[in-house]
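During the second year of the project, the team shifted from modelling isolated chains to modelling whole assemblies. The rationale, set out in the original proposal, was that interfaces cannot be judged from single-chain predictions alone. As a representative example for this report, we include one of the complexes processed in the last quarter. Its constituent sequences, exactly as entered into the pipeline, are reproduced here:
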Amino acid sequence: MADQTPSPEQLTQVDYRPKGKSWLDPHVEFRKGTYCYSAAPKNLTYLGLPNPRQWQPFDQDWKLPPDWKDIILAGMKERLDRYRSFRLFMDICVRCGACADKCHFYLGSGDPKNMPVLRAELIRSVYRRYFTLAGRLLGSTVGARDLTEDVLKEWFYYFYQCTECRRCSVFCPYGIDTAEITMIGRELLTLVGCNINWVIEPAANCFRTGNHLGIQPHGFKDSIDFAVDELEEITGVRVEAPINRKGAEVLFVMPSADYFGTPHYYTLLGYLALFHEIGLDYTLSAFASEGGNFGLFTSHEMIKRLNAKIYAEAKRLGVKWIIGGECGHMWRVMHQYMDTMNGPADFLEVPVSPITHTRFDHAASTRMVHICEFTADLIRHGRLKLDVSRNDHWNVTFHDSCNPARAMGLIEEPRYIIRNTCRTFHEMPENTIREQTFCCGSGSGLGTDENLEMRLRGGFPRANAVRYVRDKHGVNVLACICAIDKATLPPLLEYWSPGVDVAGVHEFVGNALLMKGERDRTTDLRGEPFASAKEDRAHA
Amino acid sequence: MPNIELSGNTYLVDEDGFLENPEVWNERAALDFAPTEGVSELTEAHWKVINYLRTYYLQFGIAPMIRKLCKETGFKLNEIYALFPSGPAKGACKLAGLPKPTGCV
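Output from the structure prediction step:
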């Protein structure tokens, strides 16, 4: 962690009193640690996005196109006409403030413009000025603002200080989805070339090779083969992990970090062990090699472009249905957009588990099932032999990853799996889990190093709840089902709540799963001795 | 895109200080970049990691899985962190002249 990172003592000194300047004043200071770098021109060019150039947020001159203001206003008009939700969200907010203290970035920074209501007002004030009669006539007296370069810079600052986690929208009596306002804000900024590299480079990579990391097919195969070899060393069981196999029943799509990062990788071992043990007829795809979709953090158009590969590969390979892995925002795309953007998936069948014959009717349209739904169903039908004692070295709590929890309502399945694979499980406080879960603070493309201070601030409410169960119950691992979580929660917890590891739910499955023909196992998927093995050694 | 001068040599780097053009890398570059990632001396162990990353990159166009890096070099993840305090994806990749891995990592 960089030397200039403030200490926890410094970051917990949050002043919630407004600073005295009017909210209409758009000036922001791009202080190191609180913003992300701009998108590199090569990545914008690769995606055909406007205004590729060298610039950084702290520059005075953002090198905007001469007609940038017309572009933004025309873009707003087009979106107000196209998305009724956007117009509605612009019109109906009564500024009741129910959302104000629900945002992790507001709680961690005390900056009033991180209150979701005020973040939305940044764009709403421009909407009033140019698209309502009152705003045109009465201006700032009704909270309308001219669109200036400073306003645009303010949009950039705050729309890239929102992780689109939607916790605020749970509390809005009108159901305003502030994430959608941020999405439109980012989409408008993209029209004039103001976006961040941590979003645009993965998007460009995805468009080129199918995954965020830019891994090509031979690299994909190398990583999967390595995992197969290592799983054999651990379990004594040789599994198959077919790639691009035509005619398989199921296509399995996971986030690319699962076959790159740690601790993601142990989740991958869990999937491979599970699929082998139940004899699933499945295939991976070297092109649909990414569940995540950073188009969601760019524009609706980009969501559609990047997501197209999943159905395209399902069709090319001739599978019947799709299972998706432990990926977070992917599930907002699947649940909310894929059907209409890339569907209809009428060439697929309604998913039916070949093991339990459960028909997943809720996926009758997308034909895509979350792996936690699939596995929970296997356990429910007693189709897995599980030795829970193999996870006795873990004292578990569960972090509801924002998008599976709030965008698709996947709340009980991961808990059901954990309870059936681990003996010690403790929930964090009620208002920090399930629909009210606190974001990791690094979602929606903000998980980059230069933004570390904001990530630590935004992640504080989540980490604080983890610290509570660590101190009260001795919790030593935080389970989650999102690759961004697995990447960004370890440094967050190391900072706020040391001594708590991060793991995927299917890592526990892989540990507990009794496989046919397995050797006398003494270690978990990380190569760490089981608690029982440790005891044996102690007694020997 | 800034140029930085390290030990008298000039390199074109991105905002994070990674080499903009990985192909210009040589061993001199690894030595020059080491202090920027808190590495005071490049030992045999450092070179083992750097050379493995470099070889893998030339074959696959990407850094290897972190787990694979550990296994193939024989270092545990915490040992890699001891060698490269900013970690395998940042410090080790930067010294080996690889681009910074992006996405959910």
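The radius of gyration of chain B is 13 Å. The interface with chain A takes residues 1, 14-16, 60-68, 71, 77, 89-90, 101-105 of chain B (CB under 8 Å).
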